[in-house]
Amino acid sequence: MAQDIFADIQEVKELLKSHAEVPGDLAAALGKARRHLPRRIYKQGMRLAEALPLLEHPKLRQTQDEKSLKKAALEVKNHLKAIDRADRRKGRILDILGSIAFSVLVVFVLLLTVLRWRGFI
Fold first, then answer.
1. What's CA 40's distance to the chain center, in Å?
2. Residues 6+ away with beta carbon under 8 Å from 34
3. Cα separation, 9 vs 5, whole angstroms
4. Residue 1: DSSP 8-state
5. pLDDT for position 4
6. 11, 22, 41, 63: which has the fewest C-beta neighbours closer than 10 Å?
């Protein structure tokens, strides 16, 4: 049963690397992806990261509730699998284009205001 949890934690790390685009060990990757993850998912992931060293020790493994850890891993995996990288990329590009368009609009309005103020229009 413990090997299943290790496989789940490894899959969570791979999903963080591929879908959330954050490399590193589990705790570091969750720290980098913290602002993109819901609070509950982040806390479940940190439970997994905190339990990982204890699961590697044979006697301390018995102190961990493997059922709740598997449930936490399943919840994190389901959320990470639902992340659409193409939609996130498209949203980022649209945000940049929107800010550029707003900046151009503000500069144009300021230019018209200055031309009107100086009497050229």
1. 12
2. 42
3. 6
4. -
5. 87
6. 63
pLDDT, tens digit (0-9, with 9 covering 90-100), for 45-101: 999 999 999 988 889 888 988 899 999 999 999 999 998 889 989 999 999 999 999
Residue-number span of the structural domain to which 120 is assigned: 84-121
Which residue reads 């151009």 in tokens?
A: 104
Residue linked to tokens 């493997």:
66
SS3 21: coil
Quote the tokens at residue 96: 């940049």
On whether the CB atoms of residues 45 and 30 are closer than 8 A, the answer is yes
Residue 59 is which amino acid? Answer: K
Domains contained in the chain, number: 2
| Rounded-to-integer distance, Cα 37 and Cα 53, Å | 23
Residues 49 and 1 placed together within one structural domain of the fold? yes
DSSP-assigned states of every residue in 34-95: GGGS-HHHHHHHHHHHHHHHHHHSTTGGGGS-HHHHHHHHHHHHHHHHT--HHHHHHHHHHH
Find out whether 16 and 26 touch, Cβ atoms under 8 Å. Answer: yes
Same domain, 4 and 58: yes
Specify the amino acid at residue 66: E
